[in-house]
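Section 3.1: Structural characterization of target chains.
Under the original work plan, the team committed to producing a structural model for every single-chain target entering the pipeline before any wet-lab resources were allocated. The record below documents one such target. The sequence was received from the expression subgroup and is listed exactly as submitted; it comprises 651 residues.
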Amino acid sequence: MKFVSTLSFVASSVLFLELAYAIDPCAQVAQWTNGWKADGGWEESKACLEYFPFNSQLAHQTIDTLVAGFSSFYVFKDIAISPPKSHLSIPDVDIIKELEALRNNHYHSDFEFQNDIQNIVFSLYDSHVNYEPDCYGLNWFWEQPLLLYAPVEKSVQKIKVYGIFQGYLPSVTTDLIECEVIEIDDKPAFEVIVEFAKEKGGKLKDLNVRLNAALMAANRYSGGTFGDSYGTWQVSHQLPDKPLTKYKLECPNGKSQTLTLPWIVFRPSGNYKDAAGYYAQECSVPTQTADIAPKHTKVKTSISTGQSNNPKKPYYAGSTETVNKKAPVTAPNFNLITEDDMFYIGYYLKGNSVPHKTGIIYVGTFEPEDMLSSFNILFKGIKEFLNLGIEKVIIDVQNNGAQSLLHILFNDVHTNTTTPDLEYATDILVSSQSLTLGTIEASDQYYDPFNDDYYSINGNLLTSDSWLTNYITYKRGGKISHYSQRVRSDCSTIINQVVQVMNTYGLSVLPWTPNDYRILSNGNCGSSCALFTNRLHELKGVKTIAVGGILQNPMTYQSFPGLQAYANEILPYINSTQYGNFYAKYPSLFRFLTPLPVRVEFRVTFREAYYPDQATTPLEYQFVPSDERLYYTSETARSVQALWLEVAKNL
């Protein structure tokens, strides 16, 4: 295969500039055969993204809105400036200062400007916070041909080839699977991957968890089955820094080889044929004219490969039928009881080094389509556990980004009853904007910008906005800001539903003590999942097991317990005539919170959680280590059943 060299890349970039008024690079992208391209794909995707000119006026409007949004609602804006010292791997980020500094930069394209914003927001390593323009990455996939993981073998951690994307590059073949990656771009491979994890592994504060998020493992649950979870090293939705990656491999057959590989690039699917069509599909907000679309006339080029009417658009990464990997291990002695889109429940009998009858409850992310049905699935599984005489229970929360049911599942693991610790203490940032919204919420039963009913710490329902107006002052990151009183959320409705379902199954007091449970996590257990696991660990004494990460490096079992995010739906709220048009009614408060000029997902964390209730540091910035640790092997990385078996053997 003829690979694009650095020299040819520079030459092609110059050519694109010279022909900027004659060639529409997005038209070239639109005609990729089957919607993807390897050799030259990175260069052409970059040219398309950089094609849209920078507009200073719209850039200032964007910064105004972001600064106002973060200043008004981002609860961690001060503590992020100077976080408490711990094992968490996070930089100091003054989000307001860094966004304001962009006003002084000179940009050639809107992509460069938007990319800088995205990188600044990413550096907060808060998964509740996001700034991701549809226009410049959300529906693009840049994929590495080699899929990597970091198993520990004989007390040594290595980077190895987990699998490949097959059928895209002739030089990438199945005999590369299980080869050790010695170097990447002429540097030690493990150091390169760890450095990547520090920067772009994922919006998670523990470096170990970011390493897991960067690499491969077969722990993604969807539709009742487990599949591969594609890490951020393998698949990117943001244009990578360079077109080629050099790998030095040592393979089990004794063969050493060096491969220099391009990204496999998948464009956004759709019927666009040129830059104007691409911008209309991927960038424009519904009510906006294409103000920053190219203003010069382009000449459409003809590409011999033609345009595919059915381009590949992977679900999470490359389609699974194109991935070739070592066959997963099917753990002996595992028996499935039941499953749905949220729960996967089974068990191991004694034997094969398993000392106890061990139940497995895997809990998926977010609310199921039919919550009542999922309640029934869970309690059916628990009922069968009781019938079988299950002695130990493993609760697997790997890759659980949030789940409201976790607020009540096993809340008290011994008495099976709800307790006052159902929700940790929480507060929000008090600003002119949040005070105004709180006042309106207290007086309008149909308006609920904070998405919850709040109780005082001692359990009294708060019926006014006094929890906001009687604020508390903290000094964090050298800044003084106001925060609401610490309150709790009301979860009584869902609790009552659960109790009713439990009664139909005749479930009352469960026989398992805290010592009979284990929580298994790869660290990517976030939001309400983090609160759930933290509560069981800290208040009930349930032990936690973290899997993966860096060898001999302390690792947490939970991430981003910031509690709740406020999405860009706040902008329609503020400008909506349904609620009296806050923008017109309170112009001095909301003058900068105007809709963003391009289609983008923008959200901030507006609530923080505390444990204990009077803690000085929010839970988001506390490092809570796991009790026990496992590392991936060739078998446990490829089979979640093999991982469960390893845990069950050591209970």
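Residues 56-73 form the longest helix (18 residues).
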